[in-house]
Amino acid sequence: MMKTMQQIRGISAVCLLAVPLALSGCGLFGSESASIDAPPPEVEAQMLQTEGNNTLDSGVFGPVAQDDAQAVVKDSTKTAKATDKATVSGDRTTVYLEDGNGLLAPVSLNLPKSKDSGTLKNSLMALVNKGEYASSLPEGFQGILPAGTEVQSITVDKSNLAVVEFNSEFNNYDAADERKILEAITWTLTGQDDIKGVQFWVDGKKLTEMPLQGTPLDRPLSRTMGINLPKQGPSLMNSSAVTVYFSTTSPEGIQYYVPVTRFVPAGQEQLTAAINELIAGPESGDGLEMVMTQGTSLDSVEAGQNGVVTVSLTDDMFADGKEVPAELLESVVLTVAQNTEDALVQIRLNGKQSITDTDNVDYSKPVSAPEFLNELPL
């Protein structure tokens, strides 16, 4: 599966397109981590305040019958990459952990069964560095919250706002990790129970800003804040943001996907912009791999009335539509799902509808992006 993409790893391309994500509001965006810089201030503020059209995480791929398209059914069937992992009894959930490249990656875990908000609490406790679930994390991944952090309470109101209260150890973080901590918590919780936003408390007091770098928390955070921002954001007065998925490999050689937020000029169709960002490829030195080849081009993106988004690509390397790298096709599905209401995806390559990837997944019918992503062996 990886041989084809390894041959094209490192190929660079330049392509920035726009996405019409409405950005509005005021305030500061917050500080950057040691390896990820903040976007321009005017873009920072807008992203923090905007209510976007972001969707839940997705993962293992499977075809969906055309009749089910309007229901947006998710298929939890495992692919070959996930079958080696032993099943553990518990609540499966996706949490955002720091990988060996310093990026936040979604990882699906089986946590102890809980009632009410227990699953939400456990998912946050899995983010604690050297915490009680540290031994349950895959090799090469760790929690970003300070050691000793405890979740004292978590409630979700009728507007799907999650209010989280931590103990005072939450404040004992490295200043360079401030933004990454907010991203990890926000993206972990907004992937569960239809949660739309997150509010932060510490020892009975609502946080209006983070204690070290002063990231404003006067309004709830949502996925519009982005994740894994580029090292150097463009200096654009009228920018939009789009989140796409690239791939990389764990220390054990297991492939997984990482979401990356890009800043692009405003004004063009969102999905077209997103797919072109995939073609442009990851930033040099961030540890992510090309998912497209140098010869991949986008012909069209069409949203059908039946709830299926059709992405038409051209790549002469795969003229027969067979043995197409799984990373190429799966990244398209994940990216479309992230930038729509979890739409089903139909991919056409070189005008062909019959496509089979290197994991032997048949893309001749619309494909869903299932609920759990990156189920890595422990």
TrEMBL record:
The keyword Signal applies. Residues 120-211, 271-358 form the GerMN domain. Pfam families: Germane. Keywords: Signal. Residues 1-24 form the signal peptide. It comes from the Bacteria. This is GerMN domain-containing protein. It comes from Paenibacillus odorifer.
